[in-house]
Write a structure and sequence with these properties.
Length: 405
Amino acid sequence: MGAALPLGEAAPVDGRMPDGVRVHPNVDFGVYLHVPFCSVRCGYCDFNTYTADELRGARRDQYADTLIDEIGLARGVLEAAGGLRAAQTVFFGGGTPTLLPPEDLARMLDAVRDNFGIADDAEITVEANPDTVTERVAGSLAAAGITRVSIGMQSSVPHVLEALDRTHSPENIATAVAAVKAQGLDVSLDLIYGAPGESLDDWRQSLDTALSHDPDHLSAYALIIEDGTKLARQIRRGERPAPDDDLQADMYELADEVLESAGYSWYEVSNWARKESQRSRHNLAYWRGTDWWGFGPGAHSHLDGLRWWNVKHPAAYAARLADGSSPAAGREQPDADARYLERVLLQSRIREGLPVADLSPSGRLGVASLIADQLIEADTAIKGRIVLTRRGRLLADAVVRSLTE
C-alpha cells in the first residue's frame, strides 16, 4: 500500500496556499489523477494501491465523484492564489486506471476541462495493464479525449512475469497495442529489468518483442526491491535471488544499444522515444520542476516551490472530501540548499541537461573530472550544459554527488 508519507507541516483544512506562494501564468501546469485500484498486488510494487479486500469501506464505484470533488476544491484554492491555467498535460496513473469504467475516467477528465481548461495540444495519458485494454475500452478512451496509453508490459517472458506477479500473458500485450493503435492513439510500453531469474537473453527477448509492436515510446526501469513488499520478503527468506547490480548495468546498456539501433533516442535516463513530439511531456514536467496538482489518495503536488501530499487511504480521502475538507495530509517548502540539490538531481537526468551556469562554484569545479571520467559529454559541457554519457547514466548518483558536494 505504498511507502510512508513524508514528514512536513500540517496542511490547512481549506487547502489554502501559504502567503507568498502564487500561480505564475508563464509556468506550465499539469494534472495527475491517481486511481489506486488493482486486481492483484504485484510482488515488487510499493505504490499507493489497493485490492478489493484492502479498501475497508471505500467504494470503487464512488471514486470518480470523490476525485471530482477535490478538483472543485482545487479550483477555489488556485483562484485565491492568483488564477487558473489550462492543463498542458493530464496523466491517469495508478494502480490500474482502466479498472474503472471508461465513463468514469471521461467524467474525471471533463471535470479537469470544466474547472481549469485543457490546452488544445494537451498530452492526455492513461496507464493500463494489458489485460484491461479491449477494443471497446480503447474506443471509449479515444472518445473521451485520451491521446496516449502507457501499457505495463514489463516483460514478454513468462517466468519473468511470474516472478513479478504480473497477471497478463505475453499475448495480451499484442492485443492491447493493436486496440490502442486502431484508435490512432500513441502507445508507450513500460518494461522492468533485473527480475529474479531473468537472464540477459530473457531481457533481449523482451526488448525485441516490445520493438515488434512498434511503440512510439518505451520506458525501461531497473527493478528496485522496496521494503515491505512481497518480493523483499521472498528475497530475505532466500526464496528468490536479489537483483544483481552488474547484470542490471549490462541490461541497461543492452537496452540503450538495441533501442538506439531501432531509431529511439533517450531523453531521460529510463525513457526513449522515436520523435521529440512523442516524449512524455507530463513526466518531463516533473524533471523540469514545473507546477502540477496530484488528485487522489497519496498523490503529491507542486506549486511555486510548495509541495504537499494527500492522505493515503481511499476511505480517509473520501471522508475528508465528504466533509468539505482538503485531503492534504502535509506540506513543505524546501530551503535553497534542498532546491539546488533537487534541481541538479532532476535536470541532470534529462537529455537537454543542466546549465553549467546553474551550478554552485564548487559544483563547477567538478565538471572537469566528470569529463575526464567520461561521465558527461565533453563537447556539450564546453558549450555550457551537463549531459550524461551512457556510462554517466549508469552512475547518475555519483555525478550528482560530484556536482553538489
